[in-house]
Amino acid sequence: MSLDTATVRRVAALARIRLPEEEVARVQGELNGILGWIEQLQAVDTDGVEPMAGGTPEGIAAMPLRDDVVTDGAQAAKVLANAPDREGEYFGVPKVVE
Q1: Could you tell me the CA-to-CA distances from 15 to 2, 11, 62, 79, 97 in Å, in that order?
Q2: pLDDT tens across 37-58, in order?
Q3: How many whole angstroms separate alpha carbon 81 and alpha carbon 8?
Q4: Separation CA 5–CA 70 (nearest Å)
Q5: Spatial distance between the Cα atoms of 19 and 27, rounded to a whole number of angstroms
Q6: Which of 27, 42, 93, 96 suits 5 as a labelling partner, its CA being 20 to 30 A distant?
Q7: Do 9 and 28 touch, CB atoms closer than 8 A?
């Protein structure tokens, strides 16, 4: 499969990417290269290969999870060390609403 310049422009428009006319040929080459790699991957025989989730046969489901505990981080001094303005243990910000 190969993309023509009209398709490259359409893809850029759908992706909301401003693509100057002088860049169309370069992007066309890059997208065609990507599609070439995809075609190579599709040609690989994967019959008999079990799908995996992650890099191990057990996949992500076997990874240990930590308890989700909410804390304040106990690092207020470090967090505020470079703050331009402080008010106690909070960032000082200018008043926006009058």
Answers
A1: 19, 6, 37, 37, 37
A2: 999 999 999 898 887 766 665 5
A3: 48
A4: 52
A5: 9
A6: 42
A7: no
pLDDT per residue over 7-40, tens digit each? 999 999 999 999 999 999 999 999 999 999 999 9
The full length of the chain comes to 98
| Cβ contact 12:32 at 8 Å | no
Whole-number Å distance between alpha carbons of 29 and 2: 9
Residue whose entry in the numeric block shows the structure tokens 């106690």: 88
Q: Give the whole-angstrom CA distance, residue 39 versus residue 68.
A: 42
The pTM assigned to this predicted structure is: 0.50
24: tokens are: 């169309």
